[in-house]
Every structure is written in structure tokens, then in C-alpha cells.
């Protein structure tokens, strides 16, 4: 795939799934069900991209135990 500086700033659903060690379907389920999932943006009606910097910050929070992927999101008080 041809990569420009623009495409390097975003991760695909496949890349996110690989980094997390889960399937693309699992990542989609987390997103659709409103569960804790990586920050994402929708491009058009079908394409979903994950900002790389925000994904890394989310991953750091997960590693620190601040969040658990796939669990219901907690509501802010």
C-alpha cells in the first residue's frame, strides 16, 4: 500500500486488532455496543480509522489498568 504522511497518522481496523491480539470482529463489537474501545473516527458511511497518537494513549491507559478493553464504559459523574 502506498503510504503518505497522512495515512501514517491513522491505523486501520486490522492494524488495531493485530496490536490488541483480537479479531477485527471483536473491535467492531466493542465499537457497536458502546463498550470501551480505542478512539476512532468514521470516514464516510463504512470506513473507520483510528488516530495513531490517540490509540497509543488509550493503549497506555489500558496497560496502566485505568481502562479494560471490551468492558462497559463508565459514566462520568
Kindly describe this structure.
By secondary structure, the chain is an alpha+beta fold. It has one domain (7-63): Winged helix-like DNA-binding domain superfamily/Winged helix DNA-binding domain (Arc Repressor Mutant, subunit A), CATH 1.10.10.10. Helices cover 39% and strands 13% of the residues. The protein contains three helices and three strands; from the N terminus they run βααββα. Strands 1-3-2 form a three-stranded antiparallel beta sheet. Strand 2 and strand 3 form a beta hairpin. The longest helix is centred in the C-terminal third of the chain and has 12 residues, at 52-63.
List the topology elements.
Blueprint: E1 10-11, H1 13-20, H2 24-33, E2 41-43, E3 47-51, H3 52-63
Antiparallel strand pairs: 1-3, 2-3
Provide a short characterization of the protein structure.
The protein has 77 residues and is an alpha+beta fold. It is 39% helix and 13% strand.
Helix content: 25-40%
The span between the termini is: 44 Å
**Order of adjacent strands in the largest pleated sheet:** 1-3-2
- What does the oligomeric state look like here? single chain
Number of helix segments?
3
Total count of domains: 1
Please report the total strand number as a whole number.
3
State the main characteristics.
Arc Repressor Mutant, subunit A; single chain; alpha+beta; 39% helix; 77 residues; three-stranded antiparallel β-sheet
Amino acid at each position: 500500500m502506498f503510504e503518505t504522511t497522512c495515512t501514517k497518522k491513522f491505523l486501520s481496523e486490522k492494524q488495531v486488532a493485530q496490536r490488541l491480539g483480537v479479531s477485527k470482529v471483536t473491535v467492531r463489537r466493542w465499537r457497536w455496543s458502546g463498550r470501551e474501545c480505542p478512539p476512532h473516527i468514521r470516514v464516510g458511511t463504512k470506513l473507520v480509522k483510528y488516530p495513531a497518537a490517540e490509540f497509543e494513549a488509550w493503549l497506555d491507559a489500558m496497560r496502566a489498568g485505568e481502562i479494560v478493553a471490551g468492558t462497559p464504559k463508565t459514566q462520568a459523574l
